[in-house]
TrEMBL record:
This is Microcin C ABC transporter permease YejB. Its main location: membrane. InterPro entries: MetI-like, MetI-like_sf. Keywords: Cell inner membrane, Cell membrane, Membrane, Transmembrane, Transmembrane helix, Transport. Coiled coil: none annotated. Belongs to the binding-protein-dependent transport system permease family. One of its GO terms (cellular component) is plasma membrane. NCBIfam families: PRK15133.1 (NF011712). It is found in: Cell inner membrane; Cell membrane.
Amino acid sequence: MGAYLLRRLLLVVPTLFGIILINFVVVQFAPGGPVEQMLAELRGEGQTLGRITGEGGGEIRAAPPGPGEAGRAPGAGGTGPVGTYQGARGLDPAIVAEIERTFGFDKPAHVRFLEMLGGYLRFDFGRSLFRDRPVVELIIEKMPVSISLGLWSTLIIYLVSIPLGIRKAVRDGSRFDVATSGIVLVGYAIPAFLFAILLVVLFAGGTFLQWFPLRGLATPGSEAWPFWERALDYAWHMALPTLSLVIGGFAGLTMLTKNSFLDEIGKQYVVTARAKGAGERRVLYGHVFRNAMLLIIAGFPSAFIGILFTGALLIEIVFSLDGLGLLGFEAAIRRDYPVMFGTLYIFTLLGLLMQIVGDFTYTLVDPRIDFEARS
């Protein structure tokens, strides 16, 4: 197992490199890079947009746009020489050059990529282009929100779905089984973000009641409260976002648990245990449970990462939760490349490591599994 885990860890490096490289190449051909966005803002606003820090440390002011001049260009992320931006027409070339130099686009793409990789080896993701803060600082600040949302949602889904799936397997074909199947499938059919909007309308001051807060994970000023009050306040803020993610996650795990138990119950060793006089509870929890739960328990890391990566983004937007999903979304909109690639790197690294943890969990649940022998 040790050699297998070592090989998997070594594969993380080329996998990360390939993902970052592919996304970097794609971004070079995406229109509306940070240089074009800044040029468009300068031309559209005609006023000081703030200080752009760099070697020159100068303040960039927009020149009034000329009549009939175009807006920003569909450039390739600002990799071309000064003057190739359509949005640069009417602006002093020195201003365009300063913007390119400040954002780092005065260098060839391959040089910027190698410098980015060098920083990533030191976990230095640079500074946000528009927030003027280190990317690592932003990620550390936003990560607790996303981890809280993903962790609590995954735990609640498991704590409810596993007992429900076992009960459905034991009472397969009964009215209880049919009724609960209908309920979980309806929940699965409703997208999490639509259910989140419904909860906001009903319970967060949208139209009817205002029982729950709509923003953040803590009430302003709660830092000075006693621990138990802060814990209740945290649960109060987490209730609706967590419920939004949980409601659609029940179906898959519940049906997987039920089918796993039904598959094991029909095997020969269960028939043998019953023939020897073992009680139904002993057969179910002493023999079937361990084998049936192998796939379910070992899939916990992957389920957590799935909720963290996919479902949490829209939930964070709906409930104004300032987490990694919202940070990455805003960075993509503004073409804040350091933040985009920094969050991509963290998400990819977490996903790859959680896959390894999932394999290791298989061996903990069932020591008979030997990945080393398979390889």
